[in-house]
Design brief:
By secondary structure, the chain is mostly beta strands. The chain is about 10% helix and about 40% strand. A hairpin with a 2-residue loop joins strand 2 and strand 3 (about 30). The longest helix is centred in the middle third of the chain and has 12 residues, at about 190-200.
């Protein structure tokens, strides 16, 4: 086992966040403790074994002792009493970036090998991301080399299950570049959706179907204690600025090349935008199917600056192949949303993101095969600022 977990690698073309240095897990009857999920270097005492069984049953003294085995910026994990949730509040001593984390044990894994972690920063830069770690292989090296990722569906409470598309998944590697096959990471957009649901006291269920086959793995993470833990790390808010040098973390592949959003006036900074899932004929998919009317979720994340979104409009392009020749077609129609009502699309507005529901339908044609629909959106804010986003969505044949 490598001594540090420092690299979050993209399994697809989307921008992803990268972790700072982890300590090698200390052991409680051979299992990692929550303290090992913090950051920092590893002391030479890390190989010692502490008494006790499952981490949730550790005494406060044993948990603190396990935490003290970590050095650097790591701090002791604080358990929310009577829950499966713990947190560690920490701040980078140079940049004041929030480096805290929240960890939730899986509801039915009594060994303590399965947990969900939310982290506030990566490589010295603020940015929420999450990962699930367990005892089973989730991604093989062959999968990672081929760019293959598991099929992931998540559900919050009794909400509609949502697939997590490839752009919002990542693989994780150690400082030596070796893949961590038991760990699967999630982007800011997906992590934020998880956080919002847990704050609403909704249990999170994640089902992972591996490309290598085998029985799907279903993990359940209770919401009890999450709000207190989230507040305990200041809701991942930072007071400093990103450090010029992180912990030596690098991307295994370059970040995607996407058109930078245009800015007018005082519109907030957009950090990420992506499709989440499409609903058609009672089924959820991560792409649009030709010939089927669908409603597709499209989320825009931003850094709040006091401006409120008041309207948005969406225009579309179609990419196709006909007689072996690729082409692009600009559509005439426009979809609109207004904060006070009106327009033909709906949206949920949060403090740091807007979740639109776009009605999409691509014709099924014999001679022309549509391959993608490109969405060009313009969002207007009440201070006169506006920004554009551009995002492609794959079109599949039925």
């Amino acid at each position: 086992m490598s001594g540090a977990l420092t690299l979050l690698r993209s399994s697809n073309r989307a921008a992803h966040h990268h972790d700072g240095t982890f300590g090698q897990p200390s052991c409680v009857s051979g299992r990692p403790t929550h303290a090992a999920r913090g950051g920092g270097a590893v002391s030479k005492l890390m190989s010692m074994t502490l008494p006790g069984a499952h981490p949730r049953n550790l005494s406060a003294r044993a948990l603190l002792l396990a935490a003290l085995l970590l050095s650097g910026t790591a701090s002791a994990m604080t358990r929310i009493p009577g829950t499966y949730t713990s947190y560690s509040a920490s701040t980078d001593p140079i940049s004041d970036i929030n480096t805290g984390l929240v960890s939730i044990d899986e509801l039915y894994d009594r060994s303590g090998d399965t947990y969900l972690v939310f982290r506030c920063a990566s490589a010295g830069n603020p940015g929420l991301w999450a990962y699930i770690s367990n005892k089973n292989t989730l991604v093989t090296q062959a999968d990672d080399d081929a760019g293959l990722i598991p099929a992931v569906v998540m559900r919050l409470g009794t909400d509609t299950p949502l697939p997590v598309n490839a752009d919002n998944q990542t693989t994780v590697s150690g400082s030596n570049g070796v893949l961590k096959p038991q760990t699967l990471g999630f982007s800011t957009a997906t992590a934020q959706s998880m956080v919002d649901g847990l704050l609403a006291n909704k249990k999170l269920v994640v089902r992972i179907t591996r490309t290598s086959g085998g029985q799907p793995l279903t993990f359940q993470f209770p919401a009890a204690g999450f709000t207190a833990a989230w507040n305990g790390i200041n809701q991942c808010r930072s007071t400093g600025t990103p450090a010029s040098a992180g912990s030596g973390v690098t991307l295994s592949r370059p970040a995607p090349s996407r058109s930078a959003p245009s800015t007018t006036g005082g519109a907030p900074k957009f950090t990420q935008w992506n499709f989440t899932a499409c609903t058609s004929q009672g089924r959820l998919t991560s792409a649009l199917t030709a010939g089927q009317a669908s409603v597709c979720g499209f989320t825009v994340n931003f850094i709040p600056n006091g401006a409120a979104a008041i309207s948005a409009e969406f225009r579309y392009e179609l990419e196709y192949v006909e007689n072996g020749v690729k082409g692009k077609l600009t559509l005439d129609g426009v979809d609109r949303w207004a904060a006070g009502g009106g327009g033909n699309i709906s949206a949920q507005v949060f403090s740091n993101r807007i979740a639109f529901q776009l009605p999409l339908n691509v014709r099924l044609r014999a001679a022309r095969r549509y391959t993608a629909i490109n969405v060009i959106g313009t969002i207007v804010f009440d201070n006169g600022g506006s920004k554009r986003v551009y995002e492609p969505l794959t079109v599949l044949q039925p």
